[in-house]
TrEMBL record:
<keyword id="KW-0472">Membrane</keyword>
<dbReference type="GO" id="GO:0012505">
    <property type="term" value="C:endomembrane system"/>
</dbReference>
<comment type="similarity">
    <text>Belongs to the methyltransferase superfamily.</text>
</comment>
<dbReference type="GO" id="GO:0016020">
    <property type="term" value="C:membrane"/>
</dbReference>
<dbReference type="Pfam" id="PF03141">
    <property type="entry name" value="Methyltransf_29"/>
</dbReference>
<protein>
    <recommendedName>
        <fullName>Methyltransferase type 11 domain-containing protein</fullName>
    </recommendedName>
</protein>
<keyword id="KW-0808">Transferase</keyword>
<dbReference type="InterPro" id="IPR029063">
    <property type="entry name" value="SAM-dependent_MTases_sf"/>
</dbReference>
<keyword id="KW-1133">Transmembrane helix</keyword>
<dbReference type="InterPro" id="IPR004159">
    <property type="entry name" value="Put_SAM_MeTrfase"/>
</dbReference>
<dbReference type="GO" id="GO:0008168">
    <property type="term" value="F:methyltransferase activity"/>
</dbReference>
<dbReference type="GO" id="GO:0032259">
    <property type="term" value="P:methylation"/>
</dbReference>
<keyword id="KW-0489">Methyltransferase</keyword>
<feature type="transmembrane region" description="Helical">
    <location>
        <begin position="12"/>
        <end position="34"/>
    </location>
</feature>
<dbReference type="InterPro" id="IPR053223">
    <property type="entry name" value="Prob_Methyltransferase"/>
</dbReference>
<keyword id="KW-0812">Transmembrane</keyword>
<keyword id="KW-0735">Signal-anchor</keyword>
């Protein structure tokens, strides 16, 4: 009888200690919560009580109390779920009359979740207030909003070593992420959930989704980017401009097509809708250098005519649109350096531009351009913005282009199209900055739509 009782007694003792530990953690979390709420003023009197309980002050002295409360609640939920699992296992073992505690269950269902709850508890950041002051908070109030520790490490300000001031004249570095990342918490935490130093998931499409939804700039990551398993050396520079790249240099896993040949404009299932024919070098060679092809219109300006207006003055510029870098390739032949913006909207546009020996800039419409004021000789745009764009958004974009254009720089609006009824509104947007007109052409696109091409020069504005 003594022997048969021994496993049950040992098991009951183990389960009892585990439940005591869990109960202690719950009590600790509760005390921590009460302490924080007391320090935040939740047990004040008079009108302060109303302000707190009716969410009039979710952020106390720069610290997000709501996020803190949510994080504490998440840890308590984890502990309660673990306790429920233990109670369920105890009942199951009692029915089986003396079955020994399964080791795998102990490791997977108890030890691992308990460790996660412990880590989550330790990650809760209570703001540190400078002694002798009333409300100087050192912690960022968003830290408690995210669960993944890698995000929390990223957004925490990094103080300089040995108290020195860095070359920017600051005592710490603040890493930035777009404010809209808060709206896409689960997606961002999935993006940042990786093993440090290991290979990243092939999740560029997740990153691009976050960028397009305003979570931009994204946080940096400490994992290794995957490359194609069959990566080959790019073509020599004297060949790469007008030769289709080797398809083995692209990761095709997230596209409908699996090679460059599939991206032909003759393939209705190629996976992208803009820039028809932009992966066919024979068609691309005709753009901006001749008006003899069947698709040419009076709105199609030639590069030679544009450069002649500012002979020798156009050296660097930005091509803001969607494409495979053909405009930059043509300008390179004229000794002009062009950076091309690109997004991988259904096809590997960034890889294509880079494999041609040109510079792709991976940015969205949401982002302020990473160039300093008054630095670009030329801004060219085609194919990306048309009559779908909101006027207020276009206004912000135009002012950003104006910011980076130098005095005397050229703004080339190339084949912008919109509904005839909206033309006056868009014309006003392009003319409001009082640029000098070098070229201004309107041409019918269809019965209801029109093209607009313009070449405008930024005034000096020497103040």
């Amino acid at each position: 009888m003594g022997r048969s009782c021994f496993p049950k007694c040992k098991l009951a003792r183990i389960m009892g200690w585990i439940q005591i530990i869990l109960g202690g953690l719950v009590i600790l979390v509760s005390l921590l919560s009460l302490t924080r709420f007391y320090s935040a003023g939740f047990f004040l009197h008079n009108e302060d009580i109303c302000q707190h309980f009716y969410n009039l002050r979710d952020v106390s002295d720069g610290f997000d109390v709501k996020s803190f409360s949510d994080r504490v609640g998440e840890v308590i939920d984890m502990l309660e779920a673990l306790q429920a699992k233990l109670e369920s296992k105890v009942q199951e073992m009692e029915k089986n009359k003396g079955t020994m505690l399964d080791k795998k269950f102990l490791e997977d269902q108890i030890v691992s979740p308990l460790h996660s709850a412990n880590v989550a508890l330790r990650q809760i950041r209570v703001p540190k207030v400078d002694e002798g002051t009333n409300s100087t908070v050192k912690e960022d109030h968003l830290i408690n909003f995210f669960i993944i520790e890698e995000i929390r490490k990223y957004i925490t300000p990094k103080e300089n070593r040995v108290g020195k001031i860095n070359l920017y004249g600051a005592d710490k570095v603040y890493n930035t992420i777009g404010h809209a990342c808060v709206l896409y918490k689960k997606e961002l935490e999935k993006y940042m959930d990786y093993d440090i130093g290991s290979y990243c998931d092939d999740d560029w499409n997740l990153a691009q989704k976050l960028m397009l939804n305003g979570c931009d700039p994204l946080p940096r990551r400490r994992c290794l980017t995957r490359a194609s398993k069959e990566y080959q050396k790019p073509h020599p520079i004297n060949e790469s401009l007008w030769r289709l790249p080797d398809g083995r240099n692209v990761r095709w896993g997230n596209y409908q097509c699996r090679n460059f040949e599939c991206l032909s404009s003759k393939n209705p299932k190629r996976g992208y809708s803009k820039c028809i024919g932009c992966f066919q070098m024979e068609k691309e060679k005709l753009k901006w250098v001749t008006n003899n092809n069947n698709n040419s219109l009076v709105v199609d300006f030639l590069i030679s005519d544009v450069l002649a207006i500012k002979q020798g003055e156009v050296r660097i510029g930005l091509d803001y649109g969607i494409g495979t870098g053909t405009f930059a390739a043509r300008m390179r032949e004229q000794n002009v350096t062009i950076v091309s913006t690109a997004l991988n909207l259904g096809a590997p546009f960034n890889e294509m531009i880079a494999l041609r020996g040109l510079v792709p800039l991976y940015v969205t419409l949401n982002q302020r351009l990473p160039f300093f004021d008054n630095t670009m000789d030329l801004v060219h745009t085609t194919g990306f913005m048309d009559g779908w764009i909101d006027l207020l958004l276009l206004d912000f974009i135009l002012y950003d282009w104006d910011r980076i254009l130098r005095p005397g720089g050229l703004l080339w609006i190339d084949r912008f199209f919109c509904n005839r009824n909206d033309l006056d509104d868009y014309m006003y947007m392009f003319l409001q900055l009082r640029y000098k007109k070098h070229k201004w052409v309107i041409s019918p696109k269809s019965k209801e739509e029109v093209y607009l091409s313009a070449l405008l020069e930024k005034p000096p504005r020497a103040i």
